[in-house]
Amino acid sequence: SLEWLMDYALALAIIMCVLEVVLGFALIFGSKIKVTLISLFTLTVVFFFLTLHTWQCDPFATYNEIRVVPIGSEQEQLLNSRAEESGASVEFVGKDAQNATFKEKMAVQCVNDCGCFGDAMKGSLGRSLTPYESFLKDVILMILLIPVALYAKKIKENDTAANIGFLLGSLVVVGFLSWVFNWKFYWIFFVVGFVLTFVVRKFLKSEWTTYIVITILTLLFIRHTYNHLPMRDYRPYAVGNNISELMQLPEGAQPDVYENIFYYKNLSSGEVEEHNANSEMLKSGQLSDKSKYEFVDRKTKLITAGDKPLISDFNLIYSDGNDYTEDILNEEYVILVIAYDIEKSDKAVFSKLNELQIEANNNGMYIYGVSASSESDVSEFRHDHEVQSEIEDWYSADGTTLKTVIRSNPGIVLFKKGVVLGKWHFNDCPSFQEISKLKS
């Protein structure tokens, strides 16, 4: 229901991140407390309804997506063939001179993981918050803001003594979080932000100083992580991780527990009753009496979700339809150039990638391309006169998975027997000499 926001997701993410950091510092310094509180309440209310929405999502619901595709295109042929299948979820609606319209029944994609703190909680504590837990978190935050709001008129911008007290108290809290999330940078960022604000405020003598300084500092950090890879990678594909091992369940892992559910129609009441394998009526044979009951259906229901491997969706499929993931991960050294969307990938870097391709081949190292784009899009991109990609073998994989592997389009990943040795943003495209250093 919020897919219309997809095009603005990046901008919204940046704005939300800046606001959260700036308002946190403003609250600590007591700067522009009325503006700060109104902004905090607004932000918390937005997240309150967002987490409520995700918590209330019905995973069994469906919706109709309208697909308009050019006549004679590959997409039209695919949708037409799907519409002709028995029990098809795709329905042909009509066409005009240029386009054909289809209606596809889609399952609602519920958010099972709120993603709070990115993947920091997953990478350190083992899991993130569920939508329900995140909703409760926002309720608690709203409650905690109430006494601050009631006391707002008495809150003035900190003097030096108050700053020292808040600095010491905050260092303890942020230090604890740095320990929990196993990264000292949280603590360093806080200290730098606090000291910078304290010093600059001596010159500007304005309550807006906190907003100005922390906004600039946060945007500089965001600019760095946008133009390069994240400074800390909590995801399963981080440097040093063995992808092959993370695709397997560890010993002692608990499997999913399923139960067969039988549905019988009570001919007297007309109601459809639900019975599991332990039902006394099923065991005694009462449900076999065809004068009283009529069998309707049997379904397998997930009772308890078992353990899942950290990586379950990393599959490299070649044009012949075969999965070569295991073969590629078993290579002594292999370089993957990952472009989740080939058409949106940075074109300028491919001249450097072509040089890397030639040197890799000369030194007996394989280099492959991986994309979620169609084979025809990859082929067209490769032979574009502005690009001329020399990487011949391209594999397909899920787009979301590729964005999880590396936050760059394209990005370069070096593997050794399934272990991630190095990752590079296209702005930091390595030479073969740099890659060779990691091999030694």
Describe the structure in your own words:
The longest helix is centred in the N-terminal third of the chain and has 23 residues, at 33-55. The mean pLDDT is 87. The protein contains 15 helices and 11 strands. Helix content is 43%, strand content 18%. Strands 9-8-7-10-11 form a 5-stranded mixed β-sheet, with helices on one face. It has a 3-stranded antiparallel β-sheet with strand order 1-3-2, with helices on one face. With 440 residues, the protein is α+β, with helices and mostly antiparallel strands. α1 (9-29) packs antiparallel against α8, α2 (33-55) runs antiparallel to α5 and α7 (185-204) packs across α8 (209-227). The two termini are 51 Å apart.
Count of beta strands: 11
String of helices and strands:
HHEHEEHHHHHHEEHEHEHEHEHEEH
Strand proportion: 15-25%
Fraction of residues in helices? 40-55%
Given as residue ranges, the uncertain stretches (5+ residues, pLDDT < 50) are none
In whole angstroms, the N-to-C terminal distance is 51 Å
Neighbour order of strands in the largest sheet: 9-8-7-10-11
Give a quick account of the main beta sheet: strands, pairing sense, barrel closure: 5 strands, mixed
Structural class by SSE content? alpha+beta
What is Rg? 28 Å
Number of helices: 15
The best one-word shape is globular
Round the mean pLDDT to the nearest integer and report it: 87
